[in-house]
Amino acid sequence: MSFPIKICVVCEEEFELKPDKPGFANRCPECSAPEAMEPCAKPELSADERKAEAEVNEARRKAIRDLLYRKES
User: What distance in Å separates the CA atoms of residue 37 and residue 30, rounded to the nearest whole number?
Assistant: First the structure.
């Protein structure tokens, strides 16, 4: 069984798209590997920053709720 031949969007080389290939389907394994190795680290937030972010999110939810459910007069 042959696998589909794709062209990498980064290096423009042809590669076979095999099942369970790590990374993106439009990138060859060599170009996908460095991105797959990088850890997905979020910056640590202080207590004040988390509280401010929670308040902003609450205000955003309230504004959306008001827009969606406001009564037409």
Answer: 12
> Structural domain tally of the chain?
1
- Check if the beta carbon of residue 23 is closer than 8 Å to that of residue 32: yes
Token pair 């609450």 is at which residue? 58
Would you say residue 58 lies in a domain? no
pLDDT tens-digit series, residues 11-62: 989 988 888 777 788 888 888 776 545 566 667 889 999 999 999 999 999 9
Q: Considering the domain boundaries, does residue 12 fall inside one?
A: yes
Q: Which of 4, 37, 1, 23 is nearest to 15 (CA)?
A: 4
Q: Is residue 44 part of a domain?
A: no
